[in-house]
Design goal:
21% strand, disordered N terminus, 26% helix, 4-stranded parallel β-sheet, alpha/beta
């Protein structure tokens, strides 16, 4: 576009001249009307408003040097061209945060928006309220979050990502001043006092048939297993399950590449589990590279139920044998008593001479 109007201004970062500001506004209005381009600090503008390279651009109020903060706070937008950094939003009168956007606290190629945010790490981002991203390439979102570890991320409220490559996200269930924080490099931490719901099905939220949940104050995942959301139920042959389990490769092992002395496990092979239990009369159950924990528990319960039935049958049989044994003992005792009585009678007869012995 042909320039109809151009202007050359040398505007310092803290230059407050109302005359220059009036001239700038005047030229901008003329340019808007004429669809011209305005250059500040250059003679060949490349856009409607083009500021010279390396010049800081400020819109709004600012503090100067050691000047005390504005008691009411102030809003502004700054482009730190020398650092390729951008700031937009506001700073309060808090003595700990009013200098967050000063040049010394601005990371190279960083971004901060909201109120009292601080992105002092190079390539860092801070957004929301009182968020701080001091780690290199770190990110802090939400309210009162801190990302001090390089390549770390903190999201939500009152959480801290203090380790390299860590990620933390949390709710606002803790009071201001209390924090949840990461404890190791490359770690993910989450805190939600209301629990977790992970749905994997499609459809309405009130009709998701599959997923898992972690209830408030729980220490383990719960599988959604509501009977009203299930269909096509089929019984199973528990005895057959026991037979299949007896033929599976069960033992200890470790994943390839892991330290054999530190990362050992017990359990079956997914291929064996799928071969044994991967199909019923209606369709496929699972796949041959992993084992669904709910199916694993289900197979175990079916096997336990079959064992319970076998044990109950053995108990009943044992009880019957015990009754028979008791009856036999009673009969044996009766026969013994009768024999003793017979022997006694026979001895009496022999003594009286009624019965004589025959000798050769």
């Amino acid at each position: 576009m042909k320039n109809l109007y151009t202007a050359y201004f040398q505007v310092g970062m803290r230059h407050k001249s109302l005359n220059h500001l009036a001239v700038l506004i005047f030229l901008l209005l003329i340019s808007l009307h004429a669809q011209a381009q305005v250059g500040i600090g250059l003679t060949q503008p490349k856009a409607f408003l083009n500021v010279a390279e390396g010049r800081t651009v400020l819109f709004g109020a600012d503090t100067v040097g050691s000047q005390s903060p504005n008691p009411k706070g102030y809003s502004k937008m700054i482009w730190y061209a020398g650092k390729g950094a951008f700031r937009a939003g506001g700073l309060s009168s808090n003595v700990n945060t009013y200098a967050n956007w000063d040049h010394a606290n601005v990371g190279w190629h960083s971004f901060a928006s909201g109120e009292d945010t601080k992105a002092s790490g190079n390539y860092s981002t801070a957004m929301g309220f009182n968020t701080q991203a001091s780690g290199g390439q770190s990110t802090a979102f939400g309210s009162n979050t801190t990302a001090s570890g390089d390549l770390s991320t903190a999201m939500g409220s009152s959480v801290k990502a203090e380790h390299y490559g860590s990620f933390i996200i949390g709710d606002n269930s803790v009071s201001l001043g209390s924090y949840y924080a990461t404890t190791a490099n490359h770690q993910m931490v989450m805190h939600f006092a209301g629990g977790y719901l992970l749905y994997t099905g499609s459809g309405r939220q009130d009709n998701f048939p599959s997923g898992i949940q972690l209830l408030p104050n729980a220490n383990a995942w719960s599988v959604i297993s509501d009977s009203t959301r299930k269909e096509n139920f089929r019984t199973t042959d528990g005895a057959l399950f026991l037979k299949k389990i007896s033929g599976m490769r069960l033992g200890s092992w470790n994943y390839k590449g892991q330290d054999v002395k530190q990362y050992r496990h017990y359990g079956p092979m997914a291929q064996d589990f799928f071969a044994a239990f991967g199909h019923d009369e209606l369709g496929v159950i699972g796949e041959d590279k992993s084992i669904n924990q709910a199916d694993f528990d289900g197979v175990n319960l079916i096997a336990i139920q079959a064992l319970i039935k076998e044990v109950e049958a053995l108990k009943a049989e044992n009880k019957s044998l015990k009754l028979a044994e008791t009856s036999m003992k009673a009969e044996t005792q009766s026969l013994k008593e009768k024999m003793q009585q017979f022997e006694k009678q026979l001895s009496t007869l022999m003594t009286s001479g009624t019965v004589s012995t025959i000798s050769k």
